[in-house]
User: Fold Sugar ABC transporter permease from Rhizocola hellebori.
Amino acid sequence: MPIGDAPPLVRPIVGRANRPAITSHRGRARWERLAPYLLIAPAVLVIVLFRLWPLLLGVNFSFTGDGDRNGTPVGLDNYTDLWNDPVFRIALRNVGLLVLLLPVAVAIPGLLATFIFLRVPGNRLYRTVYFFPAVLSPVIIGSIFNLLLAYDGPLNELLQTAGLGSVDWLGDPKVAIFTVVGVHIWATFGMALVVFLAGFATLDTTLLDAARSDGASLPQVIWHVIVPGLSRTIQFVFVTTMIGMLTSMFGLLYVMTSGGPGGSTYLPEYYIWIQQGQMNRPALASAASTVLFLVMLVVGLAQIGLLRKAGRED
Assistant:
């Protein structure tokens, strides 16, 4: 008898036999789709409760008043006060300066990591020495450089011996911000160096060998092989370095200049501390924090976009 002419009773029996397997397969597929979401749910919950929710509360608080108007809605008054405050405008101008200096802060650990990866003599010692400042407290670093960079300190004595004259590293408004930023870069580039070295572990060494066999010079190898191969690492270091420069310089500023001279070394985080801790204006400090967050978001997205565009062009 042909298979298509089987008795009607046979087909339901076969269907019932396959139903448990089909149901089990569907349940397994559903679990596989839900498993990633269940695994990341605790991390997402922590981020929402301890990051996003306080951020939203801070943004909402920035639209309330201080002092006699404590807790009452004031609209954009705090943001207007920020815009009219010359000290805050100096802080924003210094943020622009940090963005311009950011490529230098990234290039230094990148080049050092390149030399270590290429195994220059003493590379293991250099790796330890370069990372050592990253474990020091900003207060200790600031105190050390206060002694080194004092007007009658060792560095100026060395410059005078060379016939170059003294420089008021921390007292000249045109020089102080560059001094503090330079000290910060020296103190923190060890972490970026470690990230770059981790990125080099994923680099295709056959491309380096091919470039060398073709007679490429070191600058050509760096620009045409290493930079494209580490594009994602460079993006990460750019963003994390920018965040560190905008949010982790308080210790150095407090110890080295206290925002001076004449407010020339103010950054938004130091301005926020002054308004919250000394002026007792938490709502205005929340407004400044919101502005700082927006600045970091815009600058970070712009950097990622430019680096991706440059990577596609290469």
